[in-house]
Write a structure and sequence with these properties.
With about 290 residues, this protein is of the alpha/beta class. It has one domain (about 35-245): ATP synthase, F1 complex, gamma subunit (Pyruvate Kinase, Chain: A, domain 1, 3-Layer(aba) Sandwich). The chain contains six helices and five strands, in the order αβαβαβαββαα. It has a five-stranded mixed β-sheet with strand order 3-2-1-4-5, with helices on both faces. Helix 2 (about 90-105) links the parallel strand 1 and strand 2 (about 110-115). Helix 1 crosses helix 5. The radius of gyration is 29 Å and the shape is elongated.
Length: about 290
C-alpha cells in the first residue's frame, strides 16, 4: 500500500502534468483558429480552380497531356502521404499511416513522397526505398506543396511512377478527423465522362459558354500542374487544422483525466493519513492500558 508521502508525490507530479496539458490545450485552440482561417482563405481559389478544370475537361474532346494518359505499366504507385510533425494528438498520425499502409497493400510497389515528420519516420520503419520527405510546418506550405508537386509530376512524366495518390486527413468536425485516399493523376476517360455527366445533370453547358485562348487543350495542359500543386497545398492546410483539432480534444481529455486521478489520489492520501493517525492512537491507547495493568 502506498504511503502518504508516495501519494503526495504522485499528486504533485499529476498537477505538473495537468499544467502542461492545459497549456497545450490553449495553444491548440489558438492555432486551430489560424489554421481554419488559412483554409477559408484558400477555398475561393480552390473552388474557382475546380470549376474551371471541370469546364475545361467537359469542353475538350481529347488532349495530349501526360496527366490525362495512363501511367507506365509496371511502374510503382506514387503516394503523397501527409501527417503532422508532432504527436500528442491521439490516434491522428497512426490513423493516416494505417490508411497509407492499406493503400500500399492494394497497390503493391510504392514510391513515397512524405510531408510531415511522423510520415517520414513511419516510411523509414517500413524500409521503403526511393522516398522523399518534407516537413509540414517548416517554411512556406505553398512552396513545399509546389516542390512536392514538381517532384511527383516529373517522376510521373518520366515513367518512374504510374499514378499519384494522395493520403491525408480530412477534417469532419472538431471531434472527428478521417483519413482519405484520393487518386490525383492520371485523369482518365472515365473521370472525364463523370465530369461531363455531372455537367449535364446540373443543366450547365460549358461548351461554347467560355472562350479559351489559344485553345482549351492548351489551357488545360497548363492548369493540370496547378491543380496538382494546389490540391496538395489544400490537403496540407486541412491536415494542420485537423491536427490541432485532434490535439485540442486529446489535451482536453488528458486534463480531465488528470483531474479525476488527482481527486482519487487525494482521497487515498486522506484515507492513508487517517489510517496512520488511527494506528498511532491505537498504539498509544494500547501502551497506556499496558502501563495501567502493571
Amino acid at each position: 500500500m502506498p504511503t502518504v508521502r508516495d501519494l503526495r508525490d504522485r499528486i504533485r507530479s499529476l498537477k505538473n502534468t495537468q499544467q502542461i496539458t492545459k497549456a497545450m490545450k490553449q495553444v491548440a485552440a489558438a492555432k486551430i483558429r489560424r489554421a481554419e482561417a488559412a483554409q477559408r482563405q484558400a477555398r475561393p481559389y480552390a473552388g474557382a480552380l475546380s470549376e474551371m478544370l471541370q469546364g475545361l475537361i467537359a469542353a475538350v474532346s481529347s488532349v495530349d497531356d501526360p496527366f490525362m494518359r495512363a501511367g507506365k505499366a509496371g511502374a510503382p504507385s506514387g503516394i503523397v502521404l501527409i501527417s503532422a510533425d508532432k504527436g500528442l494528438a491521439g490516434a491522428f498520425n497512426s490513423n493516416v499511416i494505417a490508411q497509407a499502409q492499406q493503400a500500399t497493400r492494394e497497390r503493391g510497389d510504392v514510391r513515397w513522397y512524405t510531408i510531415g515528420l511522423k510520415a517520414r519516420n513511419a516510411v523509414r520503419r517500413m524500409n521503403a526505398r526511393d522516398s522523399k520527405s518534407w516537413p509540414l510546418s517548416a517554411g512556406s506550405k505553398l512552396d513545399t506543396a509546389r516542390e512536392v508537386a514538381i517532384n511527383a509530376a516529373d517522376d510521373f512524366r518520366a515513367g518512374s511512377i504510374r499514378e499519384i495518390v494522395l493520403v491525408s486527413q480530412r477534417l469532419i468536425s472538431m471531434m472527428a478527423q478521417r483519413p482519405q485516399t484520393r487518386k490525383l493523376v492520371p485523369i482518365l476517360a472515365d473521370d472525364m465522362a463523370e465530369l461531363r455527366g455531372a455537367e449535364k445533370t446540373d443543366g450547365r453547358q460549358q461548351r461554347g459558354a467560355i472562350e479559351f485562348l489559344p485553345s482549351p487543350e492548351f489551357v488545360l495542359s497548363r492548369l493540370l500542374p496547378k491543380y496538382l500543386e494546389f490540391t496538395i497545398y489544400s490537403a496540407m492546410l486541412e491536415t494542420d487544422a485537423a491536427f490541432f483539432a485532434a490535439q485540442l480534444v486529446a489535451m482536453t481529455n488528458a486534463t480531465d483525466n488528470a483531474s479525476k486521478l488527482i481527486d482519487e489520489l487525494t482521497i487515498q492520501m486522506n484515507n492513508a493519513r487517517q489510517a496512520a493517525i488511527t494506528k498511532e492512537l491505537l498504539e498509544i491507547v494500547a501502551g497506556a492500558e499496558a502501563l495501567g495493568v502493571e
